[in-house]
Design goal:
alpha/beta; transmembrane helix; leucine-rich repeat; transmembrane; 6-stranded mixed beta sheet; Leucine-rich repeat-containing N-terminal plant-type domain-containing protein; 4-stranded parallel beta sheet; 2 helices; Leucine-rich repeat, LRR (right-handed beta-alpha superhelix)
Length: about 200
């Protein structure tokens, strides 16, 4: 059992090393991320933007780096942060696509906020595999395509926003009770809570 914990801790450290290496960081937000290979006890928990289950172990459950001018793509190394529940990379300059594997990497995600970046492409339907997802915020990007109808199985989803992108098509009916503000700014999007399809926006 102890060996399994040590392996998981090493994975979280591997995850954070990869995140730091992946991003350009002009503000020095990640300067506090100095990796001490001689110790496995809690030191990453004081890193800027990192939240741990407790301060005596390196198990990371939250990574919040909003408005830090980070650039690059969503790091593949996140696959090693298997316990992560909160990922907030909002308000940066992150480009590329949303990785279709992100819920395989982070199956326990509750809060995913990638808003205010330069992300393009479609929303991966595979996000439906994040079965605990309560909050999904993707506003103010360059995303396009349709909102996946598969999201109807995200029964915990309470907060969803894709405003100010390039989405088109009909909003899935199960989202009709969500806030209209979360869908505005997409010229091709229609249906409740926006105007009915076929009658303009």
């Amino acid at each position: 059992m102890v060996s399994n914990v040590v392996v998981a801790v090493k994975d979280d450290i591997r995850c954070l090393k990869g995140v730091k290496a992946s991003f350009k960081d002009p503000q020095g937000t990640l300067d506090s991320w100095v990796f001490n290979t001689s110790s496995l006890e809690g030191y990453v928990c004081v890193f800027s933007g990192v939240e741990c289950w407790n301060t005596r172990e390196n198990r990371v459950y939250g990574l919040q780096l909003p408005s830090s001018k980070l650039s690059g793509q969503v790091p593949n190394s996140l696959q090693y942060c298997g316990s992560l529940q909160i990922l907030d990379l909002s308000g940066n300059n992150i480009s590329g696509t949303i990785p279709s594997q992100i819920c395989t990497w982070l199956p326990y995600l509750v809060n995913l906020d990638l808003s205010g970046n330069q992300l393009s492409g479609s929303i991966p339907a595979e996000l439906v595999e994040c079965k605990y997802l309560n909050r999904l915020i993707l506003s103010n990007n360059r995303l396009s395509g349709q909102i996946p109808s598969q999201f109807s199985s995200l029964v915990r989803l309470r907060d969803f926003a894709v405003a100010d992108n390039h989405f088109s098509g009909q909003i899935p009916s199960f989202m009709s009770n969500f806030s209209a503000a979360g869908f505005e700014g997409n010229d091709g999007l229609c249906g409740k809570p926006l105007a009915a399809c076929g009658y303009g926006l």
